[in-house]
Specification:
The structure is a single chain. The chain has 15 helices and 19 strands. It has helices at 9-15, 50-55, 89-102, 122-137, 164-189, 197-211, 220-226, 229-235, 279-282, 289-298, 349-362, 376-382, 394-407, 440-452, 484-492; strands at 18-22, 31-36, 65-69, 75-80, 108-112, 154-158, 214-218, 243-249, 257-268, 309-319, 331-333, 339-341, 367-372, 387-391, 411-413, 431-432, 457-461, 467-468, 478-479. The strands form four sheets. Strands 7-8-10-9-13-17-14-15 form an eight-stranded mixed beta sheet, with helices on both faces. Strands 1-6-5-2-4-3 form a six-stranded mixed beta sheet, covered by helices on one side.
Length: 497
């Protein structure tokens, strides 16, 4: 373990991964993955018939692997991509992730593609292979004194020469997107004692300077001057100051402007409404996953040539109990002037986010998309594989759903049912921060919508997919980095709703 803690060790590690496209295996890659579907002809390089593969227990299901050592010391790994008619970029990404894990002791891997991907755009195939390989090999090792994990240093794609240009373009894009997700995973994995709100501000400043972003970090005094009482109220119990981090990307000639808001609760104890000491509490260092996804996405905007203006607003603090902590019944005065009666200090994410949404609206962005590990209710409704998405505008909703489809980060549209708005009525303030006993994901979204007003807005509740509970495809168990690639894809194709 390094004596100096690096919150994002993957940033440099993924940059260093070399990507090549060749006609035949070469170089240091002693492991060759060959994609095999469930019913088509078995590629000649596997060296086994369909019957032999079946006797070995290999059917070609997506992500299934069979390791075949060769006499010359090299290794062929058959990797399943599922039914031939259903092979898509997501299947290729999962297959590459499974390959990277099956070859976990090898620093360099090669992937051969043939007829099984002939119906797909070659650039998407190249992107999916590199994303899958890099993300499938991901491990968080920064705080270990030693490691048995072999870092991935090279990915080679073996394909016919006429596909090389498109594959290279896609592969380079895939490396950038994989880096964004890896950085988001690093941030979620980092302990709250090391990645505090001030430390997050310092990191954002460093990343901004390295990637051509504008940066403004608002400390406690600045937040008091702005009247950001939602964020300041949650911070009252903390020994560390809060930060509102504003990161901006401004390409030449851009006319559209997208605002991204990320919840950055660096550790969530629940405050006075203390969480139980169970497995969910142990994961609350990940309550800043939304802010991590926004910063990670912003870090690759320039190199991917995103054509629109993007501003990220990261609302950061921890939520701790102390003699100074916010109490039940307190009233917070937010940046917009609207007041909130706080009846549960564990419904804190929405309190910090409304100040960020208000700032985005003041900046006259064309749309706001927020992302947050917001409610256990959304996890209970959708499980750990999909995020809930709410919106006040069909245009921005369609763009978020399209980006989710492209990035293979599943979202499910939930209703912004305004019949439940009355559950947020307060006896003494403009609104209270919790609704009734049911429909918690909806009432939380309705709460946020109050601050978006007429600005097109979408809300991603990622409480479910903030971490994977088991390893599958390119998704190793642990922090998922969910949303980083989705936000990049959204910005890449964003148009004014």
């Amino acid at each position: 373990m390094s004596s100096t803690f690096d919150p994002v060790p993957s940033e440099a590690a993924v940059r260093a991964v070399s990507v090549e496209v060749v006609e035949a295996p070469q170089g240091d890659a002693t492991v060759l993955g060959i994609l095999v579907d469930k019913s088509g002809d078995v590629p000649a390089g596997v060296g086994l018939s369909r019957e032999s593969l079946k006797r070995a227990g290999f059917s070609g299901n997506t992500g299934q692997t069979l390791t075949l050592p060769r006499q010359d010391g090299s290794t062929v790994i058959a990797v399943g991509v599922g039914e031939p008619e259903k092979v898509d970029a997501a299947a290729v990404r999962d297959a590459a992730g499974a390959l990277a894990r099956a070859a976990s002791h090898d620093a360099a891997v090669a992937v051969a593609i043939g007829e099984e991907t002939s119906g797909l755009d070659a650039a998407l195939v190249g992107q999916a292979i590199v994303e899958g390989a890099v993300l499938g090999r991901y491990r968080y090792e920064e705080l270990r004194s030693s490691s048995e994990v072999t870092a991935l240093t090279a990915v080679t794609i073996v394909a016919a020469s006429e596909l090389h240009e498109a594959l290279r373009t896609g592969a380079d894009r895939g490396r950038s997107l994989a880096r964004a997700t890896s950085v988001a995973r690093d941030l979620s994995n980092a302990p709250g004692s090391l990645l505090t709100a001030p430390a997050f501000g310092d990191l954002a400043t460093r990343i901004a300077s390295e990637t051509g972003l504008g940066i403004e970090v608002l400390d406690k005094a600045a937040l008091e001057e702005l009247g950001c009482g939602g964020l300041l109220g949650v911070n009252r119990g903390s020994a560390d100051e809060p930060r509102m981090i504003k990161v901006s990307y401004r390409p030449e000639g851009a006319t559209a402007h997208l605002g991204l808001v990320g919840k950055g609760i660096m550790y969530d104890s629940g405050g006075i409404s203390l969480k139980p000491s169970n497995s969910s509490h142990q994961q609350m260092k990940m309550d800043m996953t939304g802010a991590g996804a926004v910063l990670a996405a912003m870090s690759v905007m320039a190199e991917l040539g995103v054509p629109v203006n993007v501003t990220g607003y990261l609302a950061c603090t921890d939520n701790m109990p102390s003699s100074h902590a916010q109490k039940l019944g307190d009233v917070a005065v937010t940046r917009s002037g609207r007041t909130i009666e706080v009846l549960n200090t564990d419904a804190e994410g929405r309190l910090v986010m409304v100040d960020a949404i208000a700032l985005a609206v003041e900046d006259e962005v064309d749309a706001v998309v927020d992302i947050a590990t917001l409610t256990g209710a959304c996890l209970m409704a959708l499980g750990p594989l999909s995020a809930g998405v709410f919106a006040n505008d069909d245009g921005i909703l369609a763009q978020v759903k399209a980006a989710a489809e492209t990035s293979d980060e599943s979202v499910w549209h939930l209703p912004l049912d305004r019949r439940y708005r009355k559950l947020l009525d307060s006896e003494i303030a403009d609104v209270k921060n919790i609704g009734g006993d049911s429909g918690g994901a909806i009432t939380a979204a309705l709460f946020l919508a109050e601050w978006a007003g007429e600005t097109p807005w979408a809300h991603l509740d990622i409480a479910g997919p903030m971490r994977w509970e088991s390893t599958e495809g390119y998704r190793p168990k642990g922090a998922s980095g969910f949303g980083a690639r989705l936000l990049v894809e959204l910005a890449q194709g964003f148009t004014k709703p």
